[in-house]
Model the fold of this input.
Amino acid sequence: MLSELLQHPTLDSLLWRGDARPSAMRPGVASGFPELDAELPGGGWPVGSLSEILPATAGIGELRLLMPALAQLTKQGLTIAWIAPPHQPYAPALAAAGIDLARVLIVRCSRTQDALWATEQALRARACGAVLAWLQPLRFSAARRLQLAAQEGSALALLFRPPEAAAEASPAPLRLKIASCVGVPSIDIFKRRGRPAAGPLRLPSLAIRHALDRSPPASPVPRPARQHDHA
Amino acid sequence: MLRRQRAGLKAMGEIVAIAVAPTPTAAAWLARAGVEKHIAPSRLESALARLPVALLEEDAKAIEALGNIGVRTIGELIALPRAGMARRFGQRLSDELDKALGIRPDPRPWYQTPASFSSRIELPTAVDASEQLLFAARRLVLQLCGYLAGRSAGVARFTFELLHEGGEPSHCVVGLVAPAADAEHFMRLSRERLQRIVLPRPVIGMALAAEAIEPLPKLSSSLFPDGVPGGMQSAGEWQKLVEQLRARLGKEAVSGLALCAEHRPEYASLGIEPGTAANPVAQFGARPLWLLAQPLALQEKQGLPHYRGALELIKGPERIESGWWDGGDVKRDYFHARNPDGALLWIYRERQLDGRWQLHGLFA
Done:
């Protein structure tokens, strides 16, 4: 009886159910990885809300993960702002990933304070489709400010932080770690809206295939049992 | 409209008296007399009758002569026989009166705006904190925007000149990506620039100059908004963002990215003016998303390069030999490599010197 009532279409959109992903939120930007979209609230990278990406080490696939979504945004004429990137974003690889280079804006900042300010301005600007920022250290109050700025705009707000930051509290509604497991990148969404994720998600399609690659093939591999890293 | 004009003029720092009357001459008289009223055509003559003759655009002698014959107000002047007045005081006085009363037509030349803008104001007290300059800056910026609105034009660059007591003035240039005429935006940029300058000595006055006045493209040229989000509409937004970031971080801090058909990896990606990149057709092999600004020399142990652990070469070599003609000679074998953490690296071995391994990029 109750379950029938709960499935009523009007009620369904009003109720927040602990066991389901919230369906009434703003649809996200498709990540280009269907397995990942299925796990992300809103069916993609969330717009107008802060997301944290914590790669275990640089070069693990943290940018490749975003390329399909960023390429799609630049095709819509939206700008991708890179705030205080740790290295040079490399044009040949970006162009190969389908990104319109005319929509790339790189902002170099020598001080964290300037980088925070620039991130906030970019998030508020309607011209930006995505803001990628490398901010360290990042205090909770500063992250909170960015979350508010993100809510005012409609850009993907992506913060890159070191893996140690997972232990810190953060106002970002979506936080994920990227690790590599025998050559296959795996995504651990350790904070999201709605029900917690079941466990790390292996994304074989994110790995670059090489002729000489000796890593295991992209056959379905059983998910490893979730290890307790709830804070 | 009157209220808006009054507020606008006050913001620019002018003291005004505004009167509205059916004829320009009458309005000028009323304003000069401080009668800030709206006079209807039917009440024109009675309103003017009470004004003193001293308001007329006549020399002091004529006004005195009028006083000598007992004419002190405009009303008394109107009562005089017109033919006698013209004979005694000249045709001009009679004409001015007729223009004020609307009997004669009163054509006025159109207002012509000057070709470049400059304005200065004196500060009431010497200012030594740059935040206090913002108030004066706002007045100047509003004057500038009023001027630009009159010409349907914009500026891409304007300069504040700060006048110091007994010293050379200092300058503060505000640059934009494209001409604009938006006071709020100008103020935001000015604020970032002015808050950052160090004043060598107290400021006693401030001037604003803009020379390259350019016509603005017409806004709202299409009836329907662009279907594509971030089309025309966000182009302006985008420029504003670039300008705002540059105002605080400096011009070099904000750049775009372009591809260059060049084999040497470090020259294939260029920082350029934002938004000017064309998408070229250059083809490259697999390239990393991050390029290190300077290649990082890797340690070599037992014949294998190390970067946080021994590297496993998984693809390569891709031989790149180029640049012998300009001295930036490059002879390298590039490999894709993976370290124990799972990071994919782009490394190369120098073929010229001692064959050192270098880290050049990350397949992030």
